[in-house]
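Reply to dn_fold:

You asked what the input looked like. This is it:
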Amino acid sequence: MPTWLLGQTAQHAGRLVVDGFSSVGARGYHYRVLATLDDFGPASQASLGRRSGIHLSDMVATVNELAELGFVERAPDPSDRRRNVISLTTAGKRHLRRLESRLAASQDELLAPLSAEERASLTNLLATLLDHHNQRAGIPEERWR
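and this is what came back:
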């Protein structure tokens, strides 16, 4: 059944990504925050949470970890001093590139038995399924595109 195959493959994919990130002392949330900041620029924690799909309680802990490592900086928002704006540091950009390299290696390992054409076809089919179900669930497009 396709659902079983997708589920089993997702387990392998998740393990490969977790192993790749943990080999450089990172977690998936670290990648998501750094990549979101790289894509959209500095943001409040709330905005960063919405864009990355990370719950606010998890976002605080993740930003704390990344700030301690010097990968992000917090600064008071000039328009509202009650909130902070999170920005990516130079070290954070370098770390993001390391994580992207690990992620690419995980993708290659997962998709090893497929040709380039098969990989593209699989990616397109999965994107079509995801788009359909995200739209039906009313998930804002900014969260999945």
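Residues 93 and 141 are 25 Å apart (CA to CA).
Hope that clears it up.
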